[in-house]
Design a protein that fits this description.
- The structure is a single chain.
- By secondary structure, the protein is an alpha/beta fold.
- It has four domains: 94 residues, Fumarate Reductase Iron-sulfur Protein, Chain B, domain 2 (Orthogonal Bundle); 46 residues, no CATH class; 123 residues, Rossmann fold (3-Layer(aba) Sandwich); 119 residues, Rossmann fold (3-Layer(aba) Sandwich), CATH 3.40.50.11810.
- It is built from 23 helices and nine strands.
- The chain has a five-stranded mixed beta sheet with strand order 1-3-2-4-5. Strands 7-6-8-9 form a four-stranded parallel beta sheet, sandwiched between helices.
- Helix 22 links the parallel strand 8 and strand 9.
- Helix 1 packs across helix 6.
- 48% of the residues are buried.
- About 1% of the residues have low confidence.
Length: 422
């Protein structure tokens, strides 16, 4: 697609942005995998439609406010990248465009306040824990009031688990096969701290020594994908410092891992770019790391159990991790993997999307829950805490009592001889 985007439209990020525009041949392979196109059926709510809108805005042919309703509808799931035969790096165009848009648009006061509240709460575990506990109470009250409790309250668990901080060092069992640093995550530490502990136990059992480096912070993905680039860089710089000596950094949340692997783009043209790219290159999802390392020994057999695996978008599409979680699950004797229909479609979680676009997020969540229920699986596994919370919400609302676990929780329970559905 030919363009006339100014060379300095978005500084050092203009090159990757224009490369994405150039590579798009408008073939339409992305349409069937784009959740908003599937749900809304509008060309401008498809990846190729949005590429045209962003191109024309950057060229000065279109007012940014005319493009933003459709850009804002995008979940940023990157399923279009997996489907694209031309190798269009849609994310390299979308993320800096959203950062540019935030410098030019005027948001209504309620929207500005909402974004400030979310930005100052979710990335900070202590604040988020307090907010989540308040939300759990509010949701119980809202059930008794007409109209319900709102989109955000739907996702709050009935009970917020107590804080369970991870140790600074978790030693390997037996011979040390590898040493890694673990990104603890923000929301995960509050709503699902057991995921971090499960990862420590499984890694340790397989000869991996784990540190949780002091000084680490939010990965910055939440800010990065909502256009708050300066906030994202502040978080990222703390992690660049905290993990400067770590040879490998593992993540247990797909969105966090994807965000850290974007640090090179985030710091393009800045003095921190080399260090940012180095950390991005050393960051790997825990399932991919463990599958490549190889299990020291498989878990003991479990009773025959059908487990449906749900691909987190930022694992399957952004990090291209597809085979490895399935290999780990298949290593459990007695476990059979079920594949749901429409695995490429996003579940609707997508960071703050549930708050900003609750109707679309809700429809996608219901669709994903139906597809998972139809597998007949006794357990559902995934690799992202946002997906896990979204799935639990919509399965509960569909009347299905199927447990949703992280991939490492499945392994942890199998190693311990516990029932997966317990």
């Amino acid at each position: 697609m030919r363009h006339s985007i100014p060379a300095d439209a978005c500084g050092a990020q203009t090159g990757p942005m224009t490369a994405a525009v150039d590579a798009c041949v408008h073939c339409g392979f992305c349409l069937a995998t784009c959740p908003t196109y599937v749900e809304l059926g509008e060309e401008m709510d498809s990846p190729r439609g949005r590429i045209v809108l962003m191109k024309e805005t950057l060229e000065g042919q279109l007012e940014i406010d005319d493009a933003l309703p459709y850009i804002d509808n995008c979940l940023g799931c990157l399923a279009c990248e997996t489907a694209c035969p031309s190798g269009v790096e849609y994310g390299a165009l979308l993320t800096p465009f959203r950062a540019l848009a935030e410098t030019q648009r005027t948001r209504p006061l309620p929207s500005r306040l909402e974004r400030v509240l979310v930005g100052r709460t979710l990335p900070h575990p202590r604040r988020f824990r307090a907010a989540a506990r308040l939300g759990a109470v509010a949701r119980r009250v809202a059930r008794r009031l007409p109209g319900g409790g709102g989109a955000a309250l739907r996702l709050v668990p009935d009970r917020v688990p107590p804080a369970a901080p991870l140790p600074a060092l978790f030693p390997a069992e037996g011979e040390v096969r590898a040493r890694v640093a673990l990104l603890e995550g923000c929301a995960q530490r509050v709503v699902a701290p057991e995921i971090g502990w499960a990862a420590l136990r499984v890694l340790s059992r397989n000869g991996v020594e784990v540190t949780t480096n002091a000084g680490q912070s939010c990965c910055g993905a939440l800010a990065l994908h909502t256009g708050a680039a300066d906030d994202a860089r502040r978080f990222a710089r703390r992690n660049i410092d905290a993990f400067s000596r770590a040879e490998i950094v593992v993540t247990t949340t797909a969105g966090c891992g994807s965000g850290m692997r974007e640090y090179g783009h985030l710091f393009a043209g800045e003095s921190d770019e080399e260090d940012a790219r180095a950390l991005a290159a050393r960051t790997v999802d825990v399932a991919a790391f463990l599958a490549d390392l190889g299990l020291r020994e498989p878990p003991p057999p479990i009773p025959p159990t059908l487990v449906a695996y749900q691909d987190a978008c930022h694992l399957r599409h952004a990090q291209r991790v597809h085979r490895e979680p399935r290999e780990l699950l298949a290593s459990v004797p007695g476990l059979t993997i079920a594949e749901p229909a429409e695995p490429e479609l996003c579940c609707g979680s997508a960071g703050t999307y549930n708050i900003e676009r609750p109707d679309i997020a809700g429809r996608l969540g219901e669709r994903k829950a139906r597809n998972l229920i139809d597998t007949g699986a006794a357990v559902i596994a995934s690799g992202n805490v946002g997906c896990i919370m979204q799935l639990r919400t919509h399965l509960r609302e569909a009347g299905a009592s199927v447990p949703v676990l992280h991939t490492l929780e499945v392994l942890d329970r199998a190693y311990a001889g516990l029932q997966l559905s317990a």
